[in-house]
UniProtKB/TrEMBL annotation:
Statement: the UniProt record of this protein carries the keyword Hydrolase: no
Protein name in UniProt: Transcriptional regulator
HTH hxlR-type domain residues: 19-121
Keywords attached to this entry: DNA-binding, Transcription, Transcription regulation
Lineage of the organism: Bacteria, Bacillati, Actinomycetota, Actinomycetes, Pseudonocardiales
InterPro entries on file: HTH_HxlR, SCP2_sterol-bd_dom_sf, WH-like_DNA-bd_sf, WH_DNA-bd_sf
Family annotation (Pfam families): HxlR
Length: 243
């Protein structure tokens, strides 16, 4: 276990603390843990970069979650030059060996969920979080800057919503307000189509044939955005349907 955390930051073992699987499940099931640990899978990130990858989580709550994961030994704060104290947004975090092994557990839980649990409905999903997951890990400098900003309109949620994907702090992130730059690509899609694409159950071409997604813009930019949507980890191994 990590050290240095306050008592209030210790992982809460709610029931059956003697049971190893129950202890792991309590940590696994804490809100935001999968997103934070998954965000660090590719390498070290600053607090500011993590904040962009977990939209909807306030800075105080983000700091609290990071302290809890540090205390649990899942992540560690990167060393700084002796005597220096960088601003909070520039403090870096990385996975520990225990965190990298914990990431494998998250992947296994995700694979089980995709195989045996029904996908969420459009009413259950937050479009902002879904879009953040779809563009997770994209570097705007190399992924195709000519395709940004991209406007996404989700048409089957209780309230029709529009979001813009923009380059921000070395990441591609969704925003609710329109950027100053002209839109390169417009996408209209059902949340159900985006969910199925994210989970690896479908491809953009499949959804185009079903008329559940539509792209507008220059062909090269459209192809870039379509490639983004199917670049997630779940497309590496599309699951067999549950029986």
């Amino acid at each position: 276990m990590g050290s240095g955390g306050q008592a209030g930051d210790r992982p809460v073992i709610r029931r059956h603390p003697h049971h190893p699987a129950a202890r792991a499940a309590d940590l696994l099931g804490e809100p935001w843990t999968p997103l934070l640990v998954g965000s660090l899978a590719a390498g070290e990130l600053t607090l500011g970069q993590l904040a962009l990858r977990v939209p909807g989580l306030s800075r105080p709550s983000l700091g609290h979650r990071l302290r809890r994961l540090t205390t649990a030994g899942i992540i560690s704060q990167a060393a700084t030059v002796a005597g220096s104290r960088p601003p909070a947004d520039l403090r870096s975090y990385r996975l520990t060996p225990a965190g990298r092994e914990f990431l494998l557990l998250l992947d296994q839980a995700g694979a089980w969920s995709r195989r045996w649990l029904p996908p969420p409905s459009a009413r259950e999903v937050c479009p902002e979080h879904l879009l953040a997951s779809l563009c997770h890990g994209l570097d705007p400098a190399t992924a195709g800057p000519a395709a940004l900003p991209a406007r996404f309109t989700v048409i089957d949620t209780p309230v029709r919503s529009t979001w813009w994907l923009v380059a921000d702090g070395g990441a591609v992130t969704p925003r609710r307000t329109a950027p100053d730059n002209p839109v390169a690509v417009s996408v209209e899609a059902t949340a159900t189509a985006l969910i199925d694409i994210w989970l690896g159950r479908s491809r953009c071409l499949d959804e185009l044939r079903r008329h559940t997604i539509r792209f507008t813009g220059p062909r090269a930019a459209v192809r870039t955005v379509a490639a983004w949507l199917t670049a997630g980890r779940y497309h590496a191994a599309r699951p067999a349907p549950a029986r």
